[in-house]
Amino acid sequence: MSTDGRDHAGTDAEPPAGELSYTAASRELDGIVEFFEKSEVDVDQLVARLERATAIVDELDRRIRRTRAQVEELVPKLEAVGRAADEGRPGPEDPGPAGAGDEDEDEDEGEGDVEGEQLPF
Hints:
mainly alpha
């Protein structure tokens, strides 16, 4: 921490909250809280640190909401794949009865594959 009590050289040198990784943002928030707990803070520093903390919290909240929406979109797709597997229907990686489709097995290789398996959606 510098002599003015900031974790960085100052707000001008700090990257925007949106450019921080989630871990870096969380660590910076922890540092701001620690700063308030350990220091006598002048009003200018208080305002600057609170503004920075607010920007970081807003950004992390936005990321969490976006991630939650992505998970809510993917879960039904994964559940459908699971139901299909439970019902014994062939999935994209299961060509059906033995021998069916073996002759052109490598034809679609590489398109949408994840370690050799095609994604079901």
